[in-house]
Design goal:
365 residues; mainly alpha; 2 domains; three-stranded antiparallel beta sheet; 15 helices; 6% strand
Length: 365
């Protein structure tokens, strides 16, 4: 089929389709007169929804349906699950055997380590025209003296670092920058919950794996299960798309995911796990998405480092708190986030039409 960009692909920047800001209408007519016409939406997290079609995941009935944070606590209390991850494991078995769930989580962890190692191994300037210099490699060299040749060597070297606050903080930032620099240069990363927010989970997992005593595979798997469930609750009740909710829906959600996963592994109660997610999102409410030049580079890359630091602080704070006395719960903060998203002007939702994108005066790509 011939393809003519101006004729066959048209951008309507002044209007959006009903249903979601990231929408596309596609139509084709074949030689025999048959015509097809449908609408699809990129709703965040790698998900594509088609107008009028049900989510295929809805066809699977899980034993313990979860639509809100309150459902998590209700199932845990009623069924006697010791940990949130035990509940998630039970639901995941509706999709696949437990061993396959563990294998998938371990695969994600391997890809995360690989992304961090590639990110700290590469130097130069990111593509796109902003001439942003990669910083993860230089920071890694300053921390470790050199960039280890292998992923295992990187892990061992980081574990041998001093554990003072400044050094640990720099390593967390280094890991986040590494992954998002990979994302900004078309590298392979793990969407969590989106590509633009893909550095938070790796940074917090690397902190867990290299700077604490919780580093076996079971800890990693449980972290990812809980983080994924928290993302699902946000997706069902608000959004994980910056085009619909600003960066609070991306880095904010990833920070909440990471905080909950970390609190789970640190031994937090189910109430404290949800409290960790709530704290992290509470301090990302209203975060706008205003990428300079339309590129996921400034302020996006650094913002992932900030999201990771907030997640770690939120997890530790929650685990040391009496969650029963919390005045705000996760479901309330999600509702507040969604209301904020609806009130937020479209210029602050990934359009590069306000905020830093205008203040720096660099045209959108």
């Amino acid at each position: 089929m011939p393809f003519r960009r101006g004729e066959h692909l048209q951008f309507h920047r002044d209007r959006t389709l009903p249903g979601h800001a990231n929408g596309m209408r596609m139509a084709a007519r074949f030689g025999d007169g048959t015509a097809v016409d449908w609408e699809c939406f990129s709703v965040g997290g790698g998900f594509v929804a088609f107008a009028g079609q049900a989510d295929p995941f809805d066809a699977v009935r899980v034993p313990y349906p979860i639509d809100a944070g309150a459902d998590i606590l209700a199932h845990v209390r009623r069924r006697g699950f010791a940990r949130v991850s035990d509940l998630v494991f039970a639901n995941e078995q509706a999709y696949r055997p437990r061993a396959q769930t563990v294998a998938k989580a371990e695969h994600l962890w391997a890809e995360i380590i690989a992304a961090v190692h590639r990110g700290v191994s590469r130097t130069g300037t990111l593509p796109g025209g902003l001439n942003v210099t990669r910083r993860a490699s230089g920071l890694c060299v300053r921390l470790l003296g050199e960039v280890p040749a292998t992923r295992a060597g990187l892990i061992d070297a980081v574990r041998g670092m001093p554990r003072d606050f400044r050094t640990v903080n720099q390593w967390i930032s280094c890991a986040a920058l590494a992954v998002n620099e990979e994302n900004a240069s078309f590298g392979r990363i793990v969407t969590a919950p989106t590509n633009g927010a893909s550095g938070v989970i790796p940074a917090v997992l690397m902190y867990l794996h290299t700077c604490t005593d919780h580093y076996d595979n079971d800890d990693i798997v449980r972290f990812l299960l809980v983080a994924g469930e928290i993302a699902s609750v946000f997706k069902k009740n608000a959004t994980i798309s910056a085009a619909a909710g600003g960066c609070q829906a991306e880095v904010g959600v990833s920070s909440a995911m990471a905080a909950a996963g970390l609190a789970e592994v640190l031994g937090g109660s189910p109430e404290q796990v949800l409290m960790a997610a709530e704290i992290a999102m509470e301090h990302n409410l209203g975060l706008t998405c205003d990428p300079i030049g339309g590129l996921v580079q400034i302020p996006c890359i650094e913002r992932n480092a900030m999201g990771a630091i907030k997640a770690i602080s939120a997890a530790h704070l929650a685990v040391e708190s009496d969650a029963a006395k919390a005045r705000v719960n996760l479901d309330q903060v999600i509702r507040s986030m969604w209301q904020t998203a609806q009130d937020m002007k479209s210029e602050y939702k990934e359009t590069s039409e306000a905020g830093l994108a205008v203040a720096v005066n660099i045209p959108e790509c």
